[in-house]
Each structure stands twice: as structure tokens, then as C-alpha cells.
Amino acid sequence: MKESRNILFCGAIIGLLSALLVKFGNPLNMGVCVACFLRDISGSLGLHRAAVVQFIRPEIIGIIMGAFLSAFIFKEFKSVGGSSPFIRFLLGIMVMIGALVFLGCPLRMVLRLGGGDLNAIIGLLGFFVGILIGIYFLQKGFSLKRNYKQNKIEGYFAPLFAIFLFILLILKPAFIFFSQKGPGSMYAPIGFSLAVGLLVGFLSQRTRLCMVGGLRDIVLFKDTYLIKGFVAIFVFVLIGNLAFSNFNLGFSNQPIAHTEGLWNFLGMIIVGWGSVLLGGCPLRQLILAGEGNSDSLITIMGLIVGGAIAHNFSLAASPKGVPENSKVAVFIIIAILSVISYFNIQKIEKGVKKSA
Q1: 0.90 surpassed by pTM
Q2: ∠ CA(176), CA(179), CA(183), 5° rounding?
């Protein structure tokens, strides 16, 4: 009962703070979006030149540091890694491209629902189908193999990366890009955004919040613990949006969204499927990286590179719709996910029989 209260409290806080971030300057229905914000960081570092989505988002910095502080205080910080790092890097790239076809990570999907965007329902259905596909391969024996204890310095690279980003954000050197218009130019006060990120990271680390884990656990174990957090996020961001007059029910005229249902569906299939293979959604990867998991940091690097690839090769959708390049990329990624899923099935039963 206590654990349920904790995750409901975590979800309520994230929902309310997301609504406040929008009230104070973040783009509509984008209080916190891990995929969008990592894409913005990618642009700010010059990895892509889409001028409207370039900004070092303090929320990402705060989430990593909040998770690190929580793990350190409660003695859960562990330097581990070495679990199929290159495959995780590729999966990070593909999950990001899928998210940018839909225009949001699983967290933003819930925030879009709380803002009245009915396109997110189609995304949610695709996300669930992707999770079911991932679960199918898990039950067949899919594994990226175990990670290993590493030198302690490995675990500190994620918080060091966050500190490096914060320095760049404050100093604003000439080689860092900041949007002058578009979503990248819209942001809440840096101090407030950083504080929100710290709290989100801290609470998410304590509760193990993960949208992918929530739906996966319902299917596999009939366990509703994790999904309660996202139900609370939806309820409280809805309350916040209604209070701040940011609720707009419908499919059309939604902020930073498109109405091409098939591609919303397929984009989120990729996100759900890839995230199950990775063991967690993009938010969970930030938390794990803060806890010292270098595999999750590699996944984050894949997400950042994926943001660059999406915009450099016209794979990212926009409110105008989904580019043709993006549609081709979706089917290529689904094929690659199929190959990765199949060839990483561990033949446990067969191996046991042989050894016997």
C-alpha cells in the first residue's frame, strides 16, 4: 500500500509540474518529453541544423542529476555495464526515430492525452502493440545478456555529462546553437526547469517509474504498480491543463502533433518494441544512467544521435505531416528490430539438454 501511495504521489507531482512548465514557457503538451528534449540537445550541440529545435534542456540535466543524488543517498549507485553496448546504441537511435515520427516519447504521449490530443490514443495503441511484440520475444528467450560491475568512474560519466551540459547552457559559447523561433525557443525559466528535473529524477529513481515497465508488468505479471504512476500523471496534468486553459479536445489543431494515424501508430510500435528490448522507456534510461549504468548512458547517446539522424535525413515528422523518407525508415527499422529480436534469443532449454 505504501509503495502504491509513493508512485501515485510521484505521478501526481510530475503531472502538475509538467502543466506548470507549459504555463511558464515550455511548448504546449511538452512539459517534459525525453525524446524531444534530447533531440533539442542534439541540435544545440550542432549534430543537426534544424534551427527550430535547438536548446540545452535543463529538465534532462536535472533528471540525470536527481536520479544520481537519489541513488547515491540511498546507496543504490552501482557502476555496471557491458551488456551488448552497440546493440543498445542502435536501439536508442531507432527508438528516437520512432518517437519523432509520433512526435513524443511515452511520457509526452501521456501529457498529450492530458491536453486533449486524441492522436495520442492511436499512439498509445501502437505503443501497446510494440510492447506485446517485445514481450513475445522476451518469452522466447530474448536477452542482451547480463551487465557487469565496472570501474567506479564509469558510473560517474552520466552526471559528469549532465554537468558539462549545464556549463554549456550557462556560458552559451558561440559553438552552441540556440533556437530563435519554434519549439526550441520556448522554455520555462532555467532555474525552475532544472528544479523540476531534479525532483522528477529523484522521485522516478525512488519509485522505478517506467511506462514500458508498467504495461509490460500488467501483461506478464498482472502487476499494476508501475502503471499507476502514469495514470496519476494523466489525471494531474489534465487538471493542470484545465486550470490553465491549455486543454483542447480533438484530433486537429493540436500543438506539435500531426493527424496521420497510421504513422502515429507505427512510430509508437517502434518505441514500445525497442524500449522493451532495452529494458525501459527513454525516461527510465535517464534514471538508470544516473544510477551508474553505462549501458543506459550508451542508449542515451544513441537517442541523441538518433535525433540528429532524424533531422539530417528528413525522418522527423512535423505538424505538417510525415515525410516520405520517414515512412520508408519506419519499415526499415521494423525489419532491423525483427533481426535484433530474433538473433538475440538465447536457446536456454536447448543448451541445458546438450550439457545434460
Answers
A1: yes
A2: 135
